[in-house]
Fold this sequence. Notes:
By secondary structure, the protein is mostly helical. The chain has a domain at 1-38. The chain is built from 2 helices and no strands. It has helices at residues 2-15, 20-64. Helix 1 (2-15) packs antiparallel against helix 2. The longest helix has 45 residues, at 20-64. The relative contact order is 0.07.
Amino acid sequence: xxxVKIAYTFWQVLTGDISILDGLKKIGLAVLGFLLTPFRxxxxxxxxxQHHDEHLAGEIHTITDAGPERPQVAPRCPRPxxx
Length: 83
């Protein structure tokens, strides 16, 4: 996509639709956007995982704060009498 933007901007400069300075600005922004793409992916992935972790933490908090009672523990079986 960046190549298309650069080519179109170059065409606009050649045909006189935009000035050389504006063309250089647009080309610079296209190159910068291309170079920043991996960092945007990492940022989006990290934000998604953080949201997922917060969601899980909320579920755990809800489960553990269900009430003051303790969980039921199964009674132990009595040991057989020694002979």
